Amino acid sequence: MFSGSIVALITPMTAAGEVDFTSLRRLVDYHVASGTDAIAAMGTTGESPTLSTAEHLEVVRAVVEYTDGRVPVIGGCGSNNTRQAIRLSRAMEQMGVTAGLSVTPYYNKPSQAALMAHYTAITEASALPQILYNVPGRTGCDLLPETVGRLAELVPVVGIKEASGRLERVSQLKACCGEDFLLFSGDDELALDFVRLGGHGVVSVTANAAAAGMAALFAAALAGDWPQAEVINRRLLPLHRELFCDTNPIPVKWACAELGLIESPMPRLPLIPLSASGQQRVRAALLQAELIGRG
């Protein structure tokens, strides 16, 4: 279906906090030109919790339109409300996304049996291919490999974005789900090792600011050119880290504005813009990544 560098796309906002569709189109063109392998719109990095359902679907629909078939589009369709996740999945199935990205229900803290029931209900209601999204640090629940293995038997479930920060999950997931099940890292800093262990790529925050570098990094890794991948990863490592010096996506939106990719670094409340000290840290990382010059 796809592999390599998949950007967890930010949602650019105007200074007034409304979706900036002009900057969104610019971002899509930037990723296509830079070799990004797929675009994941309206995930956590896209600030999906703060957009209305109408805005959420409008952003995904716009990304599908702007890509015009040039790269696959993954649409965030997860929710802690199973009925809402079904509504989003059905809507995205109609608008032509390649797959949905379905985060585990946050705040509810469902059991493994409840997670099984949640995803089963979604797949019974929509034929949209689903990439599961496990990010325990955000959601308060951990989708265990054994449960993923059972979910992998459901026809629409094609892969997982694994952001537990535990590299041993790669071998565990491969054992439970088989070789064809798609495994994507949700942690930029660990992503090269994730692929080295058998993963298929990354759903990346860093790629928002360093699209060409991330595309080259994972093209090298998937081709088995580990020395070249290591060289690129060392250059990007400070950026992997400093883009999380504050709550994602605050730092990466500031970085994208600094690079001229979007007009405003503004996130939507309850998030606020990056502090002066955070700006210094991210600017230093952009310099080390050779994305900006000195002075």
TrEMBL record:
Entry superkingdom: Bacteria
Gene: dapA
Protein name: 4-hydroxy-tetrahydrodipicolinate synthase
Protein's cellular compartments: Cytoplasm
Pfam short name (any one): DHDPS
UniProt family annotation: Belongs to the DapA family.
Keyword field: Amino-acid biosynthesis, Cytoplasm, Diaminopimelate biosynthesis, Lyase, Lysine biosynthesis, Schiff base
Pathway the protein takes part in: Amino-acid biosynthesis; L-lysine biosynthesis via DAP pathway; (S)-tetrahydrodipicolinate from L-aspartate: step 3/4
EC number(s) recorded for this UniProt protein: 4.3.3.7
General function of this protein: Catalyzes the condensation of (S)-aspartate-beta-semialdehyde [(S)-ASA] and pyruvate to 4-hydroxy-tetrahydrodipicolinate (HTPA).
Active site residues per record: 133 (proton donor/acceptor), 161 (schiff-base intermediate with substrate)
Subunit structure: Homotetramer; dimer of dimers.
PROSITE patterns named in the record: DHDPS_2 (PS00666)
Ligand binding (pyruvate): 45, 203
Residues the UniProt record annotates as site (Part of a proton relay during catalysis): 44, 107
Catalytic activity entry: L-aspartate 4-semialdehyde + pyruvate = (2S,4S)-4-hydroxy-2,3,4,5-tetrahydrodipicolinate + H2O + H(+)
GO molecular function, one term: 4-hydroxy-tetrahydrodipicolinate synthase activity
GO cellular component terms, A-Z: cytosol
Alphabetized SUPFAM superfamilies for the sequence: Aldolase
GO biological process, any: lysine biosynthetic process via diaminopimelate
